[in-house]
Amino acid sequence: MRTETLRDFRVPVTEPAAPYAVSTGLPDEAPVYGEYPAYYEDGARAAVPPQPGYLPQPPAAPAPQPDPHREQQHEQHRDPRHDSRQDPRQDPRPEGHPHGRPQGPPQPHAHTEAEPVHSMTKGPEEDEPEGYTPTYRDLPVIGRAPLGGPGDTVQVQYIPQDAAGPGPLYVVGDVHGYLDELVTELRAQGLIDGEGRWSAGNARLWFLGDFTDRGPDGIGVIDLVMRLSAEAAAAGGYCKALMGNHELLLIGAKRFGDTPVVSGAGTATFQAAWLLNGGQRTDMERLQDVHIQWMSRLDAAVLEEDHLLLHSDTTAYLDYGDSIEDVNDTIHELLNRGDVDITWDLFRKFTKRFAFRDEETGPQAVRELLDTYGGSRVVHGHSPIPYLLGEVGTEDGDESRGPEAVDGPHVYADGLAIAMDGGVTMAGKLLVVRLPLSD
Fold first, then answer.
1. CB of 377 within 8 A of CB of 308?
2. CB contact burial 314-344 (16+ within 10 A = b; e otherwise)
3. What are residue 192's DSSP bridge partners?
4. What is the DSSP letter of 329?
């Protein structure tokens, strides 16, 4: 069922002294907070399932027993000047060697929001293999293939590309769980083939956030984006994503449940806010730790070919740093604290919208972001284009055009802003667009 997109996020409120109700999760038993019903999940927390995409290691084969006769023959012919046998407790590599032994305890990565996950195991005294590269936050996390495939692993084939430079740049607006519509649009742009596999070579694809809620298959959308990230990288391109406010909402609902937070509208919980804003129970049932890890590592802003890509049409990004790197690092660090009030504050700030819509103040707000972070245009999702155009929810009684009238991105704020949310949650269009736009 489609869940209506609201102008402002609904926040369940109660009087401070009121007890927090918990139900079995059935809609007809839902307690009411303020004027909106709040449906709570069962308070029991299930065990974290195994992460998809990583297979258990088989038991090691027993070491072969040495042949005393052959060992004696080897000793007779061995040249002591070329003896490569070492005491296994001694490392012959000097300190400072590119693959030398560690010089003290391992140092954590600067971004500690997600620990690298490797599919191999090591003994406590083994060094990293030569050529080993640690997992950084912008590398894809491989998860379960949503459109089928062998088991829980993603098979990708490396396709060498020429050195002509990066491929074309595409952006995707808010998906909100509409997996079928997303697959249709990606195929129409030639980014995936008939089997849902990456087919765009060295093209670059950016999702602007909000993968879940309101639509029927948010986890399927995340699984697809994660898989395409691996396939695009193997083909010489990339598929990346930004963090939207609905990612923050889902992370909060999973981590904090019905823990109360104090908001501007009273006392609320992530669990109730998530359900009131289109949270789907099937998504929560299928949500795994690998999805939370992936979402927590997403950046909030990026500069691509003079386009400043953001999720929300707000100036709240300025509260977190004077550079894109500072903004992303600060948000990751705050999320990594695991504090319910800090996470709620992040979520609320990135639900703000319409900062660029006013004809007088909108262009100035966009310029403030561009002057700080660079670029000549802001590209964002979050606010559906019908709302920006005043075509939904008009108050003057005039008949307005519906979301079906939106067939492409909306350029506004003196040409400085491009809106990409076509209103798929309102029977509008899910936008996949190549940049730069031809004006």
1. yes
2. bbbbeebbeebeebbbebbebbeeeebeebb
3. 198
4. H
Q: What is the largest CA-CA distance in the chain?
A: 101
Residue 259 to residues 144, 150, 256, 262, 336, Cα–Cα distance (Å): 30, 40, 6, 10, 18
Exposure letters 205-237 (e unless 16+ CB within 10 A, then b): bbbbbbbbbbbbbbbbbbbbbbbbbbbbbbbbb
Q: Other C-beta atoms within 10 Å of 303: how many?
A: 13
Determine how β-strand 417-419 pairs with β-strand 377-380.
parallel
- The span from the CA of 191 to the CA of 195, in Å, is 11
Could you read off the pLDDT of 266-287 as tens digits, one per residue? 789 999 999 999 999 999 999 9
Run of H or E including 255: helix 245-256
The parts of the chain modelled with pLDDT lower than 70 are 1-164, 391-402, 404, 439
Q: Which two tokens stand for residue 28?
A: 């007809």
The residues, ordered by sequence, that sit 6+ positions from 147 with a Cβ below 8 Å of its Cβ are: 183, 195, 196, 224
User: What type of residue sits at position 3?
Assistant: T
Whole-angstrom distance, CA of residue 77 vs CA of residue 54? 46
Look up residue 41 and give its DSSP letter: -
SS3 category, 298:
coil
Query: Which residue reads 């990293």 in tokens?
Result: 128
Euclidean distance between CA atoms 406 and 291, whole angstroms: 31
Tokens of 213: 């809620």
Name residues whose C-beta falls within 8 Å of residue 70's C-beta, 6 or more positions apart in sequence.
Answer: none
Grouping H, G, I as helix, E, B as strand and the rest as coil, residue 129 is coil
Q: The tokens of 377 are what?
A: 């245009």
Instruction: Write the pLDDT tens digit of every residue in 223-267.
Output: 999 999 999 999 999 999 999 999 999 999 999 999 999 887 778
